[in-house]
Amino acid sequence: MHNIGDAASLQEDLSNFESSSSDMGLHLNTSKCKALRVTRKHRQIKYPYTLQDSMLENVENERVLGVWISNNLTWRKQVLEQCSKANKMLGSINRSTRTIKSCKARRTLYITLVRSQMGYATQVWSPQSIDLIARLEH
């Protein structure tokens, strides 16, 4: 978006999408629709986007198919969420397997539950910053 005209053009596209979906019998749930402005610019064009006469909520982060997307194109929230889930899973495994002495069984649980959690959608959000890589390795 370079100017207010671009934003108005996007609103027109939203209106066309709304009428096309209505014509096809697909009704949009506007309470679940949000506006996420993805840019690295400090000065963003503020424009009140609407669907079905409802103003869309502006958000900084949104979860799409299990991956957090941020308005500034960083993956910090995604990495922090993945680390949190993996740590909770690891704690749960440690609490529930205290009586299991088999290293092979514990390793299988770790690989199945914790590493799979850490690897979810890494092709999309693979961390680039040293601080996020350190969080993952911790």
Compose a concise summary of this entry:
The chain is α+β, with helices and mostly antiparallel strands.
Overview of the structural elements:
A two-stranded parallel ribbon has the order 1-4. It has a two-stranded antiparallel sheet with strand order 2-3. A two-stranded antiparallel ribbon has the order 5-6. Strand 5 (61-64) and strand 6 form a beta hairpin. With 138 residues, the chain is of the alpha+beta class. The protein folds into two domains: 4-59, no CATH class; 75-137, no CATH class. It contains five helices and six strands; from the N terminus they run αββββββαααα. The mean pLDDT is 87.
What is this structure's SSE topology?
Layout: H1 4-23, E1 34-36, E2 50-51, E3 54-55, E4 57-59, E5 61-64, E6 67-70, H2 76-96, H3 103-118, H4 122-125, H5 130-137
Parallel strand pairs: 1-4
Antiparallel strand pairs: 2-3, 5-6
Amino- and carboxy-terminal Cα gap: 39 Å
Shape: elongated
Number of helices: 5
Fraction in beta strands: 5-15%
Q: What profile does the largest beta sheet have?
A: 2 strands, parallel
Low-confidence stretches: none
Kindly name the structural category: alpha+beta
In round numbers, the mean pLDDT is 87
Question: Within the largest sheet, what's the order of strands?
Answer: 1-4
Radius of gyration: 21 Å
Task: Return the string of H and E elements.
Answer: HEEEEEEHHHH
Q: How many strand units? A: 6
Helix content: 40-55%
Number of domains: 2
